[in-house]
Write a structure and sequence with these properties.
There is one protein chain. This protein has about 250 residues and is an alpha/beta fold. It has a domain of about 130 residues: 3-Layer(aba) Sandwich (Rossmann fold). The protein has 9 helices and 7 strands; from the N terminus they run αβαβαααβαβαββαβα. The strands form 2 sheets. It has a 5-stranded parallel sheet with strand order 2-3-1-4-7, with helices on both faces. Helix 2 packs across helix 9, helix 3 crosses helix 4 and helix 5 runs parallel beside helix 6. The longest helix has 23 residues.
Amino acid sequence: MASSSGSASLEDVPSIHLMTELLRRMKCASKPDKHLILIGPPGSGKGTQSPIIKDEYCLCHLATGDMLRAAVAAKTPLGVKAKEAMDKGELVSDDLVVGIIDEAVKKPSCQKGFILDGFPRTVVQAQKLDEMLEKQGAKIDKVLNFSIDDAILEERITGRWIHPSSGRSYHTKFAPPKVAGIDDVTGEPLIQRKDDTAAVLKSRLEAFHKKTKPVVDYYSKKKIVVDLQAEKPPKDVTEEIQKVLSS
């Protein structure tokens, strides 16, 4: 029976769950600690690869946007400060974001290290992150740079069409509907997301390159940047990442 505090005793947990968790912990215990940063433009495949890396190396995935929202929702001291800034329409300061990352990496799930996604976006943020990690006796081990030609990204993204009510998605080149612009099942028209147009993508990519180039240069000096050929099929990119991380 579960105790009155609401926590179940171990006897109530099915053996298979205990065994699975035990095996996971044994597998994780032998993995080296890793602190990774993923950098890549929208559509470069970071979202496909990060869960694979996370599971393979027992890391926690830190997406700064999600962490900020979680800290605000949990009303942590830093979350309260962040909310004050957001309510005023101000940007959350670098120190606050690094503080929230600092809190997050102390959780048990981040024991073996983390994957940082969406941060650092500036050299100053990278320096503050390095200082914070240094205090913990840690450092960034690798920066995985998902490099891909803008023209390929444009083809990947501007070719996406969606059937709004079902969420079915098509691609003019890679998964076209039977009739152009029409959903296969209902015969209703397909739409393109606002963000998936060439004009929006162009401005997003320009902003991305301008902002992240200095960050990539900063880590390149430390010789920890690995350029991945992100236009390859996902399976090949996964293999490339595994080679890099096992060396």
